[in-house]
Amino acid sequence: MDKFMEMATKMAQMSPEERKQMMMKNRSMCVCGKCPTYTSCMKDNGELLFCSTGKSACAVETKGCICPTCPVTNMMGLTHAYYCAKGTEKELRGM
Ligand code: SF4
Ligand code: SF4
């Protein structure tokens, strides 16, 4: 089992409150706000953590993705990028 599957299993066993805390912690570490692809529309919508929450509701013009440099990538064992345009890590794995 790879790291992401281990983390997904661990999160599935958490209480809703623990899961919420974990999401808030990950959101605070998300570096999307510093990314060239991040837009004022995303900011105005309060959008972050696309790897967990999925595609942006805003139009996305891809100009580079800094997800590989984000601490959440390492912590959660993420293997993709451009989540704001393509959807969650789970979706990209066909889960
Ligand atoms: S991996 Fe990307 S989408 Fe996920 S928290 Fe980090 S910067 Fe945000
Ligand atoms: S998901 Fe990747 S491309 Fe989209 S805003 Fe975050 S870092 Fe940038």
Q: Could you provide a short overview of the structure?
A:
With 95 residues, this protein is an all-alpha fold.
Question: What does this molecule look like?
Answer:
- This protein has helices at 3-12, 16-29, 40-44, 50-53, 71-76, 83-86, 89-92.
- With 95 residues, the chain is mostly helical.
- It has 7 helices and no strands.
- The radius of gyration is 13 Å and the shape is globular.
- The longest helix is centred in the N-terminal third of the chain and has 14 residues, at 16-29.
- It has one domain.
- The two termini are 14 Å apart.
- One iron/sulfur cluster (SF4) binds at residues 26, 30-32, 48-51, 67, 70, 72-73, 78, 83.
Largest sheet: none
Q: What form results from the Cα inertia axes?
A: globular
* Overall tally of domains: 1
Share of helical residues: 40-55%
